[in-house]
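Record 1 of the preview.
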Amino acid sequence: MIHIGVRRALIPAVLGVAHLVKGRRPTLAFIGAALVIVGILCLAVVEGVQLVQHQMIHPAADREQMVALLQRLEAGIGVKVVFLVMLLGLFLGWVTLSVGLLGTRLVHRAVPASVLAFLMLNLAGLEILSRVVFLIGLAWLGVVVVKMRDEAWLASERDDGV
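->
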């Protein structure tokens, strides 16, 4: 259940980061947010396939048919494409948003650095440590956003020409 809760928090986190970035680098904000959201949608598809796989091991299921189904699923190109788009979207999107955050003066450089460290640690296979680093970075960003005065939000919107 915690895993699902973190997924639900990702969309507002992405949109919040994009809002902070759009004042200085609107193109990076748009591209980064779009990539991450596409990655999150593909992640939902991958998790749906995992739910189906979980049901395939039920004792009432015909084992031979389930094995054949799993082999067809893994041999097909569809799941591979979705998985690749998920990885690229999440990775490139967060890198883009982090680069955009580095250009703003609203947050300490440790916040985007923690997001980039999360990506590197995750690629290295250190999932638990990477998630802790990611949550610390996003929590720090959340504190910055909560403490930000209304004038700062309005100033960032005026920089956009809105």
